[in-house]
Amino acid sequence: MEETIPPHRKKRSRRFYIITILGFLIYVGWIIGPYIRSIIVRDAAITSWLNVATAPIEGKLQEARLYVAGTVGPDGVIAIIENDLLSRTDLISAQAHLDHTTVKVSEARRFLDDIETLDDERREQKSSYAVAFRTLLDVRIENLETEIQTNERGLKLKREIADRYDKLLARKNISQIANDEAWLDVLEAEQQIAHLRETLEKMKVQRAAADKGVFITEDGDDPTWVRGARIELKLAKKATQLQLREAEADVISAKIAKAKAEEDYARQAAARVTAPPGSVVWSRRAAPGATVKAGDPVAAWLDCSILMVDVPLADAEVPLLKPGMTAEVVLEGDYEMRNGTVIMTRGSAFTLGNDDLAALAKGRGAGVGQALIEFSAERGNFDDCPVGRAAYVNFPGIGLLDIIRARLRI
Question: Which residues does residue 47 pair with via DSSP β-bridges, in sequence order?
Fold first, then answer.
């Protein structure tokens, strides 16, 4: 006999199944809600990498070449910064050092010129002494030659007298002493002639050396007028030449230091805030007239040739997307479907924000993941920069059932 289920138990069983089904539907709705919203609401956005142009120096923003949405020209200048309070101490010090070293060079050159003038005068004086020295030698040589000739004639006579004394001594007409004295006179005459000839040879050597610029006195030394102040002048000239070279080297170093000081001053007195030519100024961070420090942001810019799509995603959908997957993009107000490619994904715990991207999706919020779609190939199809426009993105390779299975891990 079949067991009869009481009506109240049947009612409780139906209520349990209904609650279970409703709970399951609520859970599925919670899972697929972000996905449904993303395919109904166009909450994605065309974006690009955001770059910030910073102040290279401290100063006042004197001129803003471009305002928001302006295109950077060929020179790349966004703004100009001037520092009117920059100290000129280093520049003045460098100029003073250069002036000081230049004066030292001028003084060394003047002193060297004076030494060379004195040296020229001393050289001329030495030349005059040399002429006189050679002339005196010529005179003395000529006198010695004459004296030798005279003594040779006297020696001849003395020998003849001594010969006659020999004959007279043989006949005993004179004494031996008288004969010896005659021959002593001959010997003295011969010695005198020998001494004169030796002196003559020495003077001829002196004369030959004098022709070569070497002046020798009778005692073998050089005359005082050869030395004189010439050595001191040469030493002073060498020392001054060394000082001049050192001063000239100091001038070169001072010029380099001045050029560096001028370069540093010019770099710190005025500078340009730049961005790549053709980029777009996205926002201003400082207005003209504002005082900025080095490193302060002045303007944000982007390269509109690099386009991406910021897509908000449910965390369950993030692991289903892989780099290289195709995405279908439709812009707000546009009915043409354009293709993009997934380049990266981020979970809701760490998505890229305003520090990295020029525009964020409308659906960006807590607990929402992120996908970036490469969209640069479509840049030629837009007259202006489309960054910031809303868009709808569909991933043909992912369906609702894929989201549910991923969430339920089945």
Answer: 308
